[in-house]
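User: Quick sanity check before I run a bigger batch. Here is a single chain. Can you write out its predicted 3D structure?
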Amino acid sequence: MSPIIEIQNLSFSYHKQKVLEEINLCVEEKDFLAIIGPNGGGKSTLLKLILGINKPQEGTILTFGETPKKNLSKIGYVPQNTNVNIDFPIKVIEVVLMGHIGTKRPLFGYAKEETLCAMGALEQVGMEKFANEKIGSLSGGQRQRVMIARALCAHPQILILDEPTASIDIDGQKQIYKLLQELNNYITIIVVSHDISVIMQYANKVAHINKRLTHHHMSQENDLKHKCDHFCEVEMFNQLREDK
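Assistant: Done. Predicted structure follows.
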């Protein structure tokens, strides 16, 4: 199976200071990839490169065999902060309709099929009953579900989420990850997260990034053993489970 994201020998610097170094990563269809690592380790920079916001300075990155900008319509993105402008008087359905990339007609409204698509996306995430509520009246977890619905409106083949459970309570976190697990039946999921104890229940691959990348296949027990100088939260969490 050909990778839908292929990164080879990728390096990137800000003002001559290297942030990512010799990154190699393959993401295949229906993978659930968790990206973890310390603050400042390069996680956000890697996302920007995958989304085509930044260009590689060394090495290559391909999505569906082409440069990232040629396939942006195949990637849905859910940002970390869903609290921006929550006082703005906009309804949930209007937020989701914004997900129709390149088809928005704000002066003339949306087509019937676009509205039906938005309602279908809300139903997928269990938020259809809130369609006419103000976005600011929802809880953090509910807003995150709405943002996921907005991304689903573009019918992406890859869904990328940056800290999707930040500032959400434990029950809300589990609900979000269970939703992502369901979506993973037909969409490739990439999640940047610090919730290592939760994400390891759902991810089949984990990429630890701290300038360099170390890859873990969660389905292969040997990959969770300490084989080299690298030691991260994945090995630590696995060791705690073995000690119980």
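Strands lie at 5-14, 17-27, 32-36, 58-63, 75-78, 158-162, 188-192, 205-210, 212-217.

User: Great, the batch can go ahead then.
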